[in-house]
TrEMBL record:
This is Isocitrate lyase. Can also use Mn(2+) ion. Its cofactor is Mg(2+). It comes from the Bacteria. Mg(2+) binds at D184. The keyword Lyase applies. GO terms for molecular function: isocitrate lyase activity; metal ion binding. Gene3D superfamilies: Phosphoenolpyruvate-binding domains (3.20.20.60). The keyword Calcium does not apply. InterPro entries: ICL/PEPM, Isocitrate_lyase, Pyrv/PenolPyrv_kinase-like_dom, Pyrv_kinase-like_dom_sf.
Amino acid sequence: MSAYRETVNTFAKLREKHAGKWDTINPEHAARMALQNRFRTGLDIARYTAGIMRRDMAAYDEDPSRYTQSLGCWHGFIGQQKMISIKKHFGSTKGRYLYLSGWMVAAMRSEFGPLPDQSMHEKTAVPALIEELYTFLRQADARELGHLFRELDAAHTKGDEVAARAVQDKIDNFETHVVPIIADIDAGFGNEEATYLLAKRMIEAGACCIQLENQVSDAKQCGHQDGKVTVPHEDFLAKINAVRYAFLELGVEDGVIVARTDSLGAGLTQKIPVSTEPGDLASQYTSFLYTTPVCNEDDLVDGDMVIKLDGQLQKPLRVANGLYLFRPGTGEDRVVLDCITALQNGADLLWIETEKPHVGQIASMVNRIRDVVPDAKLVYNNSPSFNWTLNFRQQVFDAWEQEGKDVSAYDRARLMSAEYDDTELAALADEWTRNFQRDAAREAGIFHHLITLPTYHTAALSTDNLAKGYFGDEGMLAYVRDVQRQEIRQGLACVKHQDMAGSNLGDDHKEYFSSERALKAGGKDNTMNQFA
């Protein structure tokens, strides 16, 4: 017996127990509503999606070509449409996740209005967006299953049992739109207790994977801006512990922690940790400080601090705001130590924030990490903050120059110019860009590729194109030709926006509840029928 029929029978038996009081309840309708609401709570989602991530991580360890991907989404509808699109084009959501970007929460979802990525937005906006994303994904399940149920009814009405069995098989093997979300908790929005409390809210909303960065929470900066300040390892590890405790308390034993290091671009630290024995983490962190030797008291002024490094008195260099400087050129070494330490103390995945997309640069750090932790793997930010066109054209230029190829026809500093768009160099750079994720997964240990804020840019671009035409000479043609006609031609379900928003679901429910007395919206006068 199919799973669908088993569910129907379960409700039929339950109805019988109530001796006629539930005779107006249709077991098939109850079964359908139950199947359309597979996940009862956010914790159900977190446990389910954590299992997906763990299996995907194991598959990647066996075969690096099985990397995973996601796009950042700032609204539930955007996440829903992304997963509907993936199912339409690829037939499965396997290996595709959602990313929740702290940058986009700050810029798009804060009640204070648009804010920079500096942890100034209200922290409750983060779990609220997780819950919203999963509400829309669950609604996508309900909508698609609702269409299948209608197909099943139509097949039964026609007496076509072959078609009915085919639809029932689709129902039994339905793949949910609910996928893992990698959720950005920034630097924890406070101390380790604050991190724990926020992590709990995020997990309860459905997050199976939390990304935590090693910046100072009250001085946090976007990963691609200047002025980043890191914390000592002990402080960061306490927050990793806080997130793990939150997962365990809520019964999400497979919860995934992504430890992000911003050390490559961070030249400052807020405090100097206390070392208790030679060579411990505190002393390793301190060894990267920019210091000057102290030979006598004349080398000091009021308020200076002196520390002992390798048997010598040294004065850490401070800037005007009291922060301490790291020595230039120590970024990669600090990244490697950060990553090894995080993996050895409870993190599952790494995130190395870089200043450019360069497979060789990433691999050079990952290989050093893997010398100590062989199964180390990364989540990597394919960031819109990079000028991808310029970066890859310059990488090809540099490679050609190193090979001795004549590059005199190109100005390296101006390679973004449109005059180079149809050149051999530009074509090869585009091919390198096309292969970046595959190459980096194979050569640089990247398990998951994401774009943090792509839908921020797509919303701006599509709106600009529509506004240019609609408010110009094209008028309504700009919308019809470039939006609605394209929706129809490309088979976007959203062209029937009433259905996407739940109109047909509501009609089905009204019929369940009120039978033939139901007042439904989907009759012959519904203009949505124009898109049949």
